[in-house]
Amino acid sequence: MPAQHDLNPVMSVAQVSAMLDEVFPQFNVDRAFEVRDIRPGGCTVRLNAGDNHLRPGGTVSGPSLFALADIAGYVCVLSHAGPDALSVTTNLNINFMRKAEAGPIDGHCRILKLGRSLMVFDIEMIAGDDQHLVAHATGTYSIPPKR
Amino acid sequence: MPAQHDLNPVMSVAQVSAMLDEVFPQFNVDRAFEVRDIRPGGCTVRLNAGDNHLRPGGTVSGPSLFALADIAGYVCVLSHAGPDALSVTTNLNINFMRKAEAGPIDGHCRILKLGRSLMVFDIEMIAGDDQHLVAHATGTYSIPPKR
Amino acid sequence: MPAQHDLNPVMSVAQVSAMLDEVFPQFNVDRAFEVRDIRPGGCTVRLNAGDNHLRPGGTVSGPSLFALADIAGYVCVLSHAGPDALSVTTNLNINFMRKAEAGPIDGHCRILKLGRSLMVFDIEMIAGDDQHLVAHATGTYSIPPKR
Amino acid sequence: MPAQHDLNPVMSVAQVSAMLDEVFPQFNVDRAFEVRDIRPGGCTVRLNAGDNHLRPGGTVSGPSLFALADIAGYVCVLSHAGPDALSVTTNLNINFMRKAEAGPIDGHCRILKLGRSLMVFDIEMIAGDDQHLVAHATGTYSIPPKR
């Protein structure tokens, strides 16, 4: 894809992480999610999947991977459109390709479009020794008007 | 839609609930999800949304509504294709329409197609005093071959 | 679903059909698409599928069913938000359930949300002697600001 | 993404093009679609968008871009799983990001998963002097069992 390298982040990993801790106190109780990288047009968020993220068969559950996609999109919005906590997901489509076991899952997220009121993104979720693609999602965040 | 009333459930609410308790011990710690109804071609699952399901702004989070959709689809698979715990979601697309506050959210799920290896479903998630549609999802479960 | 019966159409079948003929001259060369009904919160559009809508195996092609979904959504926007031709689809997710043969396919479309700048809809596409569900779609139209 | 470079094509551009001409006689009347490249784990298909692919406002229509995504997925299935014409799309989700004008639109498609019975793919559709991303889609093809 033509890189969206003209999209410059306005917040750092430390700033976004501090904001998530503040606005989502119940969110990250077990430090399950970590912001790993913020770069022009994208970010990487890691899910450290533990027992509470598994479903029958010992694989990481759909809701856990959905949460990874949703949070990574949120990190992209915050870091590129500015620290307004009230952006909301309007649509998310996720495909589950391979089973993931407990352990780190890296969500590499990129901004497909950053408009005034909408951001479209996709994300590849990679896990395991062989770094397989376990899930892929595409989604849209609605960005509230500046006040 | 032409009703799929020829699809007859093979498990009751009590049987599915007992099976979920057994195979998902970590799943329903706080009794957040309740199977309310199983009927020909569909089911209703309720999310009793508490503080841990909220995101900034006090509204029910995307992952919580995704989980409701995913679980309701799972209840449809179990109750109509039989008690094999290993069916997995392959795709789920969700649209978020209105904010939901803490409280009960009813997911009315219907089977759009039940084939030998795939089940397609959709779900309407309804909440609040005025019983608004807060979210809508469509998804696919892959059903493992009979052993 | 809680009916959106409070959504009142502002254009009739004849008015929308005349507008489509005018703004889409290349669109409906063979009278393949017909607006059949406009009602509070929804509409029905028919695709009269002929040879040019078929794919290998003699079944109606994916792009033809996508077009039916897209046009029905457009008819819902025009008839409920007013005659502005410039609304555009931003997202559409479609599931194909059963094969459809040449002949009429009825797309029953309903508005899930009509906001100021976005309309979310879904559509059931029904065909054949037994009136099976052949495809289901969910989509979003972006509505331009009033000038 | 970890490249799927271990996925080797079994058909060439010339072979797939000849097969499309044969099985889709009505499909490519105006030579609107061209297979440009087939490579390990992916392919590129071009839509030469003309007047009949435009919608009001002079931009390439949703159904035309959907067709590009659908055909590119089909070219990936044929070229990587072998020349069985009867694979069918089961799901396709498309996001429209920017307007495209008449002219060439390149669909760069990659296989996210190639299983025995399903292929999951995504596609970036690029157009214009500045080679912008105009649309992005993710989809699934069902592959019939070998006879």
Automatic annotation (TrEMBL), chains A, B, C, D:
Domain (Thioesterase): residue spans on this chain: 57-131
InterPro entries: HotDog_dom_sf, PAAI_dom, Thioestr_dom
A single GO molecular function term of this UniProt record: 1,4-dihydroxy-2-naphthoyl-CoA thioesterase activity
Keywords annotated in UniProt: Hydrolase
Signal peptide: none
Pfam families per the UniProt record, alphabetical: 4HBT (PF03061)
Membrane-spanning parts: none
Cellular component, GO, one term: cytosol
UniProt-listed NCBIfam families: unchar_dom_1
Designated name of the protein: PaaI family thioesterase
Organism listed in the record: Mesorhizobium denitrificans
Lineage of the organism: Bacteria, Pseudomonadati, Pseudomonadota, Alphaproteobacteria, Hyphomicrobiales
